[in-house]
Model the fold of this input.
Amino acid sequence: MHDCGHGSLFETARLNRIFGFLLGVVNAIPQLSWSIDHAYHHKTNGDWERYRGVADFLSLEEFQNLSRKEQRIYETTHHPLMAIPGGFYYLAIKPRLDLLIGLISPKNRMWGSREELNDLCLSNFFSLIAVICLGWWIGFGLFLSLYSVVLCLTASSLIYVFYVQHIFEKSYANPSQGWSPMRGALEGSSLLVLPPLLQWFTANIGFHNIHHLCERIPNYNLEACHQLNQHLLQNVPTLTLSSMLKCSKFLLWDPAKASLAEIPPQHQLSTV
Done:
Protein backbone atom coordinates (compact mmCIF):
# COMPACT_ATOMS: atom_id res chain seq x y z
CA MET A 1 0.00 0.00 0.00
CA HIS A 2 2.85 2.33 0.89
CA ASP A 3 4.69 1.72 -2.39
CA CYS A 4 1.50 2.08 -4.41
CA GLY A 5 1.05 5.53 -2.87
CA HIS A 6 4.50 6.48 -4.14
CA GLY A 7 3.68 5.00 -7.55
CA SER A 8 6.58 2.58 -7.25
CA LEU A 9 5.20 -0.93 -6.77
CA PHE A 10 4.01 -1.29 -10.38
CA GLU A 11 5.07 0.40 -13.58
CA THR A 12 1.66 1.91 -14.36
CA ALA A 13 -0.32 4.45 -12.35
CA ARG A 14 -3.50 2.45 -12.91
CA LEU A 15 -2.14 -0.72 -11.29
CA ASN A 16 -0.71 1.27 -8.37
CA ARG A 17 -4.09 2.92 -7.87
CA ILE A 18 -6.10 -0.32 -8.05
CA PHE A 19 -3.85 -2.36 -5.77
CA GLY A 20 -3.30 0.61 -3.46
CA PHE A 21 -7.06 0.82 -2.94
CA LEU A 22 -7.43 -2.93 -2.35
CA LEU A 23 -4.53 -3.04 0.10
CA GLY A 24 -6.02 -0.01 1.84
CA VAL A 25 -9.21 -1.99 2.42
CA VAL A 26 -7.14 -4.87 3.86
CA ASN A 27 -5.35 -2.42 6.14
CA ALA A 28 -8.65 -0.69 7.02
CA ILE A 29 -7.19 2.64 5.94
CA PRO A 30 -8.24 4.70 2.86
CA GLN A 31 -5.10 4.63 0.75
CA LEU A 32 -5.43 7.85 -1.23
CA SER A 33 -5.80 10.13 1.81
CA TRP A 34 -3.02 8.29 3.57
CA SER A 35 -0.72 8.62 0.57
CA ILE A 36 -1.34 12.37 0.25
CA ASP A 37 -0.54 12.85 3.94
CA HIS A 38 2.52 10.63 3.64
CA ALA A 39 3.75 12.61 0.63
CA TYR A 40 3.77 15.73 2.83
CA HIS A 41 6.02 13.87 5.27
CA HIS A 42 8.48 13.18 2.45
CA LYS A 43 8.29 16.75 1.19
CA THR A 44 9.10 18.30 4.58
CA ASN A 45 11.19 15.71 6.44
CA GLY A 46 13.80 17.49 8.57
CA ASP A 47 12.01 20.86 8.35
CA TRP A 48 10.70 20.94 11.90
CA GLU A 49 8.85 24.23 11.59
CA ARG A 50 6.58 22.74 8.92
CA TYR A 51 6.43 19.13 10.12
CA ARG A 52 6.85 18.27 13.80
CA GLY A 53 7.69 14.64 13.32
CA VAL A 54 5.48 11.59 13.55
CA ALA A 55 4.14 12.51 17.00
CA ASP A 56 3.65 16.31 16.79
CA PHE A 57 6.58 17.19 19.02
CA LEU A 58 6.85 20.43 20.96
CA SER A 59 9.93 22.60 20.91
CA LEU A 60 12.05 22.79 24.05
CA GLU A 61 10.75 26.30 24.77
CA GLU A 62 7.11 25.31 24.23
CA PHE A 63 7.52 22.39 26.63
CA GLN A 64 9.12 24.55 29.30
CA ASN A 65 6.22 27.01 29.06
CA LEU A 66 3.71 24.28 29.93
CA SER A 67 2.42 23.73 33.45
CA ARG A 68 3.83 20.71 35.29
CA LYS A 69 0.51 18.88 34.76
CA GLU A 70 0.63 19.57 31.02
CA GLN A 71 4.22 18.38 30.89
CA ARG A 72 3.27 15.09 32.56
CA ILE A 73 0.43 14.63 30.08
CA TYR A 74 2.84 15.27 27.20
CA GLU A 75 5.34 12.73 28.57
CA THR A 76 2.58 10.15 29.07
CA THR A 77 1.03 10.54 25.62
CA HIS A 78 4.48 10.21 24.02
CA HIS A 79 5.44 7.05 25.92
CA PRO A 80 6.32 4.09 23.63
CA LEU A 81 3.46 1.98 25.06
CA MET A 82 0.98 4.55 23.76
CA ALA A 83 1.70 3.15 20.29
CA ILE A 84 -0.63 0.25 21.17
CA PRO A 85 -3.88 2.23 21.67
CA GLY A 86 -2.55 4.83 19.23
CA GLY A 87 -2.13 2.20 16.53
CA PHE A 88 -5.67 0.93 17.05
CA TYR A 89 -7.04 4.49 16.85
CA TYR A 90 -4.98 5.23 13.72
CA LEU A 91 -6.30 2.21 11.80
CA ALA A 92 -9.69 1.36 13.28
CA ILE A 93 -11.15 4.73 14.31
CA LYS A 94 -9.47 7.69 12.60
CA PRO A 95 -10.45 6.91 8.96
CA ARG A 96 -14.11 6.54 9.99
CA LEU A 97 -14.02 9.56 12.31
CA ASP A 98 -12.40 11.81 9.69
CA LEU A 99 -15.12 10.96 7.18
CA LEU A 100 -17.92 11.45 9.73
CA ILE A 101 -16.59 14.80 10.96
CA GLY A 102 -16.12 16.05 7.41
CA LEU A 103 -19.67 15.10 6.40
CA ILE A 104 -21.18 16.73 9.49
CA SER A 105 -18.97 19.82 9.41
CA PRO A 106 -17.65 20.60 5.89
CA LYS A 107 -15.26 23.27 7.19
CA ASN A 108 -13.41 20.53 9.14
CA ARG A 109 -13.23 18.06 6.29
CA MET A 110 -9.95 16.20 5.85
CA TRP A 111 -10.16 15.64 2.10
CA GLY A 112 -9.04 18.08 -0.54
CA SER A 113 -10.78 16.76 -3.67
CA ARG A 114 -13.80 14.85 -4.87
CA GLU A 115 -11.57 11.90 -5.78
CA GLU A 116 -10.27 11.75 -2.23
CA LEU A 117 -13.81 11.86 -0.82
CA ASN A 118 -14.88 9.04 -3.17
CA ASP A 119 -11.89 6.98 -2.03
CA LEU A 120 -12.74 7.59 1.63
CA CYS A 121 -16.38 6.55 1.14
CA LEU A 122 -15.62 3.46 -0.97
CA SER A 123 -12.78 2.26 1.23
CA ASN A 124 -14.84 2.63 4.41
CA PHE A 125 -17.81 0.95 2.72
CA PHE A 126 -15.80 -2.11 1.65
CA SER A 127 -14.09 -2.31 5.06
CA LEU A 128 -17.53 -2.33 6.70
CA ILE A 129 -18.78 -5.03 4.32
CA ALA A 130 -15.68 -7.13 5.11
CA VAL A 131 -16.29 -6.79 8.85
CA ILE A 132 -19.95 -7.78 8.48
CA CYS A 133 -19.17 -10.80 6.29
CA LEU A 134 -16.32 -12.10 8.44
CA GLY A 135 -18.27 -11.45 11.64
CA TRP A 136 -21.25 -13.36 10.27
CA TRP A 137 -18.95 -16.22 9.20
CA ILE A 138 -17.03 -16.84 12.44
CA GLY A 139 -19.04 -14.82 14.95
CA PHE A 140 -18.78 -11.11 15.65
CA GLY A 141 -17.34 -11.51 19.14
CA LEU A 142 -14.50 -13.76 18.00
CA PHE A 143 -13.81 -11.79 14.82
CA LEU A 144 -13.75 -8.35 16.47
CA SER A 145 -11.57 -9.65 19.31
CA LEU A 146 -9.03 -11.20 16.96
CA TYR A 147 -9.12 -8.22 14.60
CA SER A 148 -8.58 -5.74 17.44
CA VAL A 149 -5.59 -7.68 18.78
CA VAL A 150 -4.05 -7.97 15.30
CA LEU A 151 -4.59 -4.26 14.62
CA CYS A 152 -3.09 -3.21 17.96
CA LEU A 153 0.02 -5.39 17.63
CA THR A 154 0.78 -4.81 13.98
CA ALA A 155 -0.04 -1.09 13.97
CA SER A 156 1.97 -0.39 17.12
CA SER A 157 4.95 -2.38 15.84
CA LEU A 158 5.03 -0.74 12.42
CA ILE A 159 4.30 2.73 13.79
CA TYR A 160 7.27 2.38 16.12
CA VAL A 161 9.50 1.18 13.26
CA PHE A 162 8.47 4.29 11.32
CA TYR A 163 8.96 6.42 14.44
CA VAL A 164 12.56 5.41 15.11
CA GLN A 165 13.48 5.93 11.49
CA HIS A 166 13.13 9.66 12.11
CA ILE A 167 13.41 10.05 15.88
CA PHE A 168 16.89 9.32 17.17
CA GLU A 169 19.89 11.06 18.69
CA LYS A 170 21.29 13.83 16.46
CA SER A 171 18.48 13.41 13.93
CA TYR A 172 18.49 16.35 11.51
CA ALA A 173 15.80 18.74 12.79
CA ASN A 174 16.34 22.14 11.23
CA PRO A 175 14.20 25.30 11.15
CA SER A 176 12.71 26.16 7.75
CA GLN A 177 15.39 28.73 7.01
CA GLY A 178 18.46 26.83 5.89
CA TRP A 179 16.63 23.48 5.68
CA SER A 180 18.23 21.00 3.29
CA PRO A 181 16.07 18.24 1.71
CA MET A 182 19.22 16.20 1.10
CA ARG A 183 20.24 16.36 4.77
CA GLY A 184 16.63 15.62 5.70
CA ALA A 185 16.91 12.36 3.76
CA LEU A 186 20.43 11.32 4.77
CA GLU A 187 20.57 12.64 8.35
CA GLY A 188 16.87 12.89 9.24
CA SER A 189 16.22 9.24 8.33
CA SER A 190 17.97 6.21 9.77
CA LEU A 191 19.28 2.95 8.41
CA LEU A 192 17.48 0.39 10.55
CA VAL A 193 19.38 -2.91 10.44
CA LEU A 194 16.91 -5.75 11.01
CA PRO A 195 17.21 -9.56 11.00
CA PRO A 196 16.44 -10.99 7.52
CA LEU A 197 12.93 -12.20 8.42
CA LEU A 198 11.89 -8.86 9.92
CA GLN A 199 13.50 -7.03 7.02
CA TRP A 200 11.30 -9.04 4.65
CA PHE A 201 8.14 -8.48 6.73
CA THR A 202 8.76 -4.72 6.78
CA ALA A 203 9.38 -4.61 3.01
CA ASN A 204 12.98 -3.36 3.36
CA ILE A 205 11.77 -0.06 4.84
CA GLY A 206 14.81 -0.14 7.15
CA PHE A 207 16.76 1.32 4.22
CA HIS A 208 14.99 4.56 4.95
CA ASN A 209 17.74 6.92 3.81
CA ILE A 210 17.56 5.43 0.31
CA HIS A 211 13.77 5.56 0.38
CA HIS A 212 13.78 9.27 1.25
CA LEU A 213 16.43 10.04 -1.34
CA CYS A 214 14.23 8.51 -4.05
CA GLU A 215 10.72 7.41 -3.14
CA ARG A 216 10.14 5.90 -6.59
CA ILE A 217 12.49 3.00 -5.84
CA PRO A 218 10.28 -0.04 -5.08
CA ASN A 219 10.84 -1.80 -1.76
CA TYR A 220 12.30 -4.89 -3.46
CA ASN A 221 15.18 -2.79 -4.89
CA LEU A 222 16.06 -0.75 -1.78
CA GLU A 223 18.65 -3.20 -0.42
CA ALA A 224 20.42 -3.45 -3.79
CA CYS A 225 20.53 0.35 -4.06
CA HIS A 226 22.00 0.55 -0.58
CA GLN A 227 24.66 -2.05 -1.36
CA LEU A 228 25.66 -0.32 -4.60
CA ASN A 229 26.04 3.03 -2.86
CA GLN A 230 27.51 1.95 0.48
CA HIS A 231 30.67 3.97 -0.15
CA LEU A 232 28.51 7.13 -0.15
CA LEU A 233 26.53 6.14 2.95
CA GLN A 234 29.29 5.51 5.46
CA ASN A 235 28.08 8.16 7.90
CA VAL A 236 24.30 7.73 7.78
CA PRO A 237 22.59 7.20 11.19
CA THR A 238 22.36 3.47 11.88
CA LEU A 239 20.02 1.77 14.36
CA THR A 240 19.46 -1.83 15.43
CA LEU A 241 16.72 -3.60 17.38
CA SER A 242 18.74 -3.18 20.58
CA SER A 243 18.99 0.59 20.15
CA MET A 244 15.38 1.27 19.12
CA LEU A 245 13.93 1.86 22.60
CA LYS A 246 16.63 4.41 23.40
CA CYS A 247 15.09 6.65 20.76
CA SER A 248 11.95 7.10 22.86
CA LYS A 249 13.68 9.63 25.13
CA PHE A 250 14.07 12.20 22.34
CA LEU A 251 10.69 13.90 22.62
CA LEU A 252 11.45 17.57 22.01
CA TRP A 253 12.83 19.75 19.25
CA ASP A 254 15.65 22.15 20.05
CA PRO A 255 15.66 24.81 17.26
CA ALA A 256 18.84 26.43 18.61
CA LYS A 257 20.84 23.20 18.11
CA ALA A 258 18.83 22.03 15.09
CA SER A 259 18.40 18.62 16.71
CA LEU A 260 16.11 16.56 18.90
CA ALA A 261 16.43 16.77 22.67
CA GLU A 262 15.50 14.81 25.77
CA ILE A 263 12.96 16.10 28.27
CA PRO A 264 14.93 18.14 30.84
CA PRO A 265 15.58 16.55 34.26
CA GLN A 266 12.91 17.09 36.91
CA HIS A 267 14.91 19.67 38.87
CA GLN A 268 15.16 21.88 35.79
CA LEU A 269 11.38 21.85 35.38
CA SER A 270 10.67 22.95 38.94
CA THR A 271 11.28 26.58 38.09
CA VAL A 272 8.86 26.63 35.15
About this structure: The two ends are 45 Å apart (CA to CA). Residues 267-272 have pLDDT under 50 and may be disordered. Residues 2-269 form one domain.
